[in-house]
Amino acid sequence: MNPNLETLSAEIGTRLLERGEALTTAESCTGGWVSQVVTAIAGSSNWFDRGFVTYSNAAKADMLGVSKKTIVRHGAVSEQVAIEMAQGALQHSRAQWALAISGVAGPAGGTPEKPVGTVCFAWASSHGLAECETCHFPGDREAVRRASVEHALHGLLQRFTPLLA
């Protein structure tokens, strides 16, 4: 595993264990890669509840409760869908923290408005956090997906560090 991903995952686990809290994930373009990275850490069952891989729009709606109207209005790759994914993951798990990822990893599927490398992220918590952002990553499919995993984990650590201090 990438040493940076391992370090991020272990730090997230330490912080969650300190609070007795857990993480859930809702992934689309990363296909469960965040969940794989997290579960590569020994003892992660103490702080990782579950992961949802919702690649299709139907899965986003069925498993996470993402509004079909939101998908039609904004597209699956949007901050609006990402935040609904994160909030849905919280609602359908026992976790207190969620991260969500939806993007265009390529090599096809991009549009002028959402070119390949466009990835939307959301982080939510039972403490009231609900934040999202869009990034544009260069490279091929694997590079976009890898950068997305790292960004999602780093973003989570940034967001809950002040709350867990």
Task: Itemize the secondary structure elements and their pairings.
Layout lengths: L2 H17 L3 E5 L5 H7 L8 E6 L3 H8 L3 H7 L4 H13 L5 E7 L14 E8 L4 E7 L4 H24 L1
Parallel strand pairs: 1-2, 1-3
Antiparallel strand pairs: 3-4, 4-5
Helix pairs in contact: 1-6
Account of the 3D structure:
With 165 residues, the protein is an alpha/beta fold. The chain has a single domain, classed as CinA-like (Maf protein, Alpha-Beta Complex). Helix content is 46%, strand content 20%. It has a five-stranded mixed β-sheet with strand order 2-1-3-4-5, with helices on both faces. The chain is globular and about 45 Å long.
Runs in which pLDDT lies below 50 for 5 or more consecutive residues are none
Taken from the alpha-carbon principal axes, the silhouette is globular
N-end to C-end Cα span: 28 Å
Secondary-structure element order, as H and E?
Answer: HEHEHHHEEEH
Number of domains: 1
Q: What's the overall average pLDDT, rounded?
A: 95
- The DSSP helix count reads 6
Please tell me the CATH architecture by its name.
Alpha-Beta Complex
Question: Quick gist of this model?
Answer:
By secondary structure, the chain is α/β, with parallel strands linked by helices. The chain is 46% helix and 20% strand.
